[in-house]
Amino acid sequence: xxxxxxxxxxxxxxxxxxxxxxxxxxxxxxxxxxxxxxxxxxxxxxxxxxxxxxxxxxxxxxxxxxxxxxxxxxxxxxxxxxxxxxxxxxxxxxxxxxxxxxxxxxxxxxxxxxxxxxxxxxxxxxxxxxxxxxxxxxxxxxxxxxxxxxxxxxxxxxxxxxxxxxxxxxxxxxxxxxxxxxxxxxxxxxxxxxxxxxxxxxxxxxxxxxxxxxxxxxxxxxxxxxxxxxxxxxxxxxxxxxxxxxxxxxxxxxxxxxxxxxxxxxxxxxxxxxxxxxxxxxxxxxxxxxxxxxxxxxxxxxxxxxxxxxxxxxxxxxxxxxxxx
Length: 325
Hints:
The chain is α/β, with parallel strands linked by helices.
């Protein structure tokens, strides 16, 4: 019998954020995804990789300075016996060698350890040696917000600073594909702005209208889109009713597309720090899912991020045409 998350975190009755436990349990139904863990040279990153392995979410390949990894394990009382360790000179070299593991077909996911996100992503997007696809790389938060009936996905709050309309097409499609991989029965995408009417003086409202029309014409698939929508009438049925907005998305959105990184970052962090939300993070649009963790993340968030990567990898294995080329 596979181990369950309840063995390492409090039961749902003891804490309000239980949807991530369900996410982990769903990921455990499949085989662990082989994951190159990049530079796991501090306690948080190494311990998270080992716990995800114990729960059979991932099969880790540790990539980084071997001596430093061994010293970290010894100092923190962690057992890495039996795990493959690929020696690297430093964090940049670890990122490059982890990407090589994917290119050689030895890993189906990447997981960030104790290195800067920019270091890892530079190796991922390298033109000749990286993991580029025809899609724009983007980031997605999967958020469990207390009191909200369904998980919320927010994109892009971590990678694209000021995305163009062309970039947003990929950002939206990446999020839709992820939502399907996570089992969403219907994907309802709200293109957010400060208002729900198209205003030529507010570029995000014009882009929202264009994205919705592109979905109508089949340029974005797999979801129903609406926008521009303000945050309140995107997620609150009452707010949508007051504004007399009639659409299958208004008040019921499960994917929120923000105008730019600043708006997305502030939205995600306000939900985390003011509403007590959990936020799992994943990078999409590369050949494989990339787990991005923060030093501030608690264990449940890190494990949920691994579960998201595992479910996405499983979806690509079962439907090869869903993989991005």
